[in-house]
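[job 4417] fold queue: 2 targets
>>> target A
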Amino acid sequence: MGSRHPDGDIILRKSRWLALAAVAGLAFTATGEGTAGAATDMTQRAVVGNPPPWTASAEHLGHADPGGTLEATMLLAGQDPAGLARHAQEVSDPHSPSYRHFLTAQQALDRYGTSHVQWERVTKWARAAGLKATVSGPHSISVRGNTSRIEAAFGTRIDKYRVDGRTVRAPARSVSVPHSLAGDVFGITGLDTRRLAHPMSVHKNAPSTTNAPSTTGSKCSSFYGEKPAANLPKAYGRTVSWEPCGYTPAQIRSAYGIKGTGLTGKGAKVAILAALVSPTLLKDANTYAAHHGEQPFAPGQLTMRLPQGAPQVVGDDEGAMDLEAVHAVAPDAAVTFDVGTGDVTGNAVLDALTDVVDHRLADVLTSSYVEGVLPGGQQDEDRVDPAIVKATEQSLQQAAVEGISTNFSSGDGGGFHDGNASPHGTPQLEYPSSSPWTTAVGGTSLAIGAKNEYEWETGWESDASKLAADGKSWAQPLPGTFSAGAGGGVSTVFAQPAYQRNAVPVALSSPDGKKPMRTMPDIAAVGDFHTGIRVGVSHPSATGQKPQYREQSDGGTSLSSPLIAGMEALAVQAAGGKSLGFANPALYALQGTGAYRDITDHPSGAHEKESFAAEMVNPRTQEKYTQLFTLGQSADSGLVSGPGYDTVTGLGSPTGNFFKALAGK
């Protein structure tokens, strides 16, 4: 199956995850191309997909080449989708007699996965339609055929379109399967090749790290407020300080009340979902640990599950941050770094998620990646392929019945599209974090004092203003314009789950006065890029030498989610190694118990504003300049911050009481 790597345990998954079929006791062997005629009598059809919305405005180039080759993935519904959802709710409800009585992965697959009868029915039809199998797994079957066979099999027409300078293919009519398969196949992916232009789902903080200026860190503070910027203009009547250099693991543990608990995550397992991996990941994490007096990964403590062809990128600070953040909070937890490519289901997030769930690889899962990627890096929950959403919801429900806690970061654009105002005037949520079956993790700005003590947090929503050319004033009237902040808001797709019913104000869950909807985030931890964590990662050398290790401050809700995952690993340890399962019902039940800090925009007083300065660099022009950041600007982010639940930090950030309270101790 794999081999041991000098840097740790790496599992190289078999070609395109064909091994997954064996897990479910299923197999699919293609029998040649067959004939299309067997699939053409389709008077009774079940629609499982529609033309992508973007085709309505794209340049239409006509019918695709009938002889061209296409590949499609059939997403399988399993034996009892409704029963799976009920079971997931029962084991997650603190008031249910089934609370935290979980199934093994094999029991879950046997009860709710694709049955042998379903498998045979779908594969027999595919063979008769002249389609050839390429990939198989417990939840999907990928097939290949020429355009004519694909069109006949799925009752559609495949046309060509010109989009963003590229020629792509997509269904011009609804996609369907015979009614006899309506209970077996609920969606088809792969026919829309525009989506395939972005096979790796986008990391939450990618827009900020790739398109926006970054800090130089040349005048930073080792703790909040350490270095006054006496040469800069005052802000809000006070001398400002330089931003933190990035907090260390010891500072994070102390600020969140972990120090002194004796909790290290021992016996817990955490999975990190990713769409690429740095070849120096483990080496960098151990170098980072040594630099900060932390323990390195023990042999076998980190496992990397990599499909063939998994993208490897030197200098991937995002994967490094995920791993180093989990290890900072839960240094004894076992970690699996799982890379998805989209080869199995047509979506990288779903690939990695199903691998973790089908093999029950973790007690806690974290991901900083999203689905529904569009050109330009935009994400929006209502633009995600409905078939992918349905498959992801089932995988998250399967995680719940197996006792896996799942966490997804809420995004870094406030209530907007990566910092841009919504086209229809409502906050833009990202998926899967908007799912009612996962914990959406928002972000805060965090002040840690000289003795590593917690000073305060605000919701991470920052405005910024440049230093004027003469150095005597701030160029824009303070607080400036919106810079970045944690994502949140109200779903337009998912109804309000029961656990939010008495916790989320109606004014937030139903801003239009209609049906209450899923509101996010659920919980928060530090995410501000400028009050984040120090991250160690090797970067490519400009001279062609070996990659050079260096440290930098990093953040985003991509930091918040792995921090919360690490804290949940501590709760697993506090529970005696027993899994917690889907955490949201328990998280909301802890409201008002002292498990959270209630985060507002004004931690130092109703009329006080917190701000700091940072030296910045534009990555495109290399221009260096100074900028003032004003914190807690939720109104400018399109979100709401205030006492109790809010759309910036949810229930709040964890206190030292959180870990045992979540464990039920």
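>>> target B
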Amino acid sequence: MAFGIDLGTTNSCIAYVDDAGRPVVVRNALGEYTTPSAVYFEGRDSVLVGAAARNAALLAPDLAVQLVKRHMGRKDVEYTFHGRRYTPESISALVLRELAAATERRLGRPVRDVVITVPASFGVAERQATRQAGEIAGLNVLDVLAEPVAAALSGQERHPARGVRHLLVYDLGGGTFDTTVIRMDGDDAHVVCTDGDRRLGGADWDARIRTFLLETFAEQHPRLDPGADERFVQDLWIKAEQLKEELSSSLTRHKNLRFAGKAVRAELTRQRLEELTADLLDRTMKITEETAERARAQGVTAFDEVVLVGGMTRMPAVAARLERLLGTTPRHHEPDLAVARGAALFALVRQAQQGDAEDVADRLGISRAQAESMRSRRVTTVVPRGFGVKVLDHNDPLAHTDPLRARAYVVHLLPAGTVLPADTGPVAFATAMDNQPGIDVEVWEQNGRESSEEVADNTLAGRGRLRDLPPRLPRGTPIHITFHMGETGLLTVHAVEPASARQVRFDLQIGGLDRADVERARTAVARHDIGS
């Protein structure tokens, strides 16, 4: 049995495909479909995960971690609790372990093979970090899958449709936002284009409400400073999230705030909330409009369906703005559960693709025809952000006299939106100076949503060295560089000097921890006693 896991910024859930072929979301130990992606470190080897962690954080917020997904793939982020250091990957692994353990208790079956979802805007480093979080949790990660694609697969299962259809998936979750255009051809899914903001989501709406609540309290009690009290602020986060959810179905709500013996009744209306957060919603609409324009440039002139995914899409303003923008009435498709359901379907496909049809049919308890159908399904994705190499600007006068100080820039060989797998073929570059003994091939990844050749707008992803070039090579000697990126994000770089056939080839799994770090983290996480 394979499982699909929606590892969310604020909430996570897990699903599997039952004997009738339907994806089913598994309830956790509390009987709920979603589990808060929160971890509380109550002792050196003891943690709480989920609702219990969020509640414990009210008393000791310095021992809790939330919104860790926003830091996936970053090597400069670490957490220290009870003298131990944790990476975003190991924190996420604790959440994954709890999901798996709760599922095993409920189903009486082991959780081993999984597909974990990621935002479509996640780069290769974040995707690799997510895969490693699964490995640290002791899971066999069959693949990572973009959340909008998972939602589209779930929708196709619920509402089967023949022929080619184009979907625009608007995915606004707790911490990230994506807009993705997908071409559905029967059961096959092909990403046309995608864009998003990895730092935009429901947590930003919560922050605006929290500020509103603090200001409301300060207006009535200006001599008090509750914002400096961690427990009060932690309680505000919970009240802010509650207000946000309640105002999706109500026009006005209130919360009672208490601090230092003083109480304030803070009232918030849906209209005022929309005013406070108008710029946030505007950002999502701008990204959506730009994504739709890129899709039109690729021949997608209309959308058969606009699908809303993520808990934030319950806000009435989202559907209203999208309908005005796109001229199509959006449809909610299980905003909190569709991603996990689609991931479970894809996990079954990935399992089926790992063996021949007869073996797959026996192993999964399905007919050979069903196994063949699963094995033939295809999901194609695109490079979310561009990849390139750093080169010397030969128009800079320093390039001839002092190359090390001359301007450099990035040439993106794999632009954002390139369909995977992709092969650039040989691209010609040149040596920077006479008698150059070798070349450092530096691979850089696009930082933001917009492509830029400026080095500061890109991130160094890795490097390799082409050594021992023949002596007396003149400046400008051709060097051919080829990029090949597979569906899993593994980038192979090949550099060759054609005349001498000197070459270097290296596989670059962008970002994440090295194998030794993963094994150490796996051992450390396995020691923890997890409560929920």
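[job 4417] complete. Note on B: The chain has a mean pLDDT of 90.
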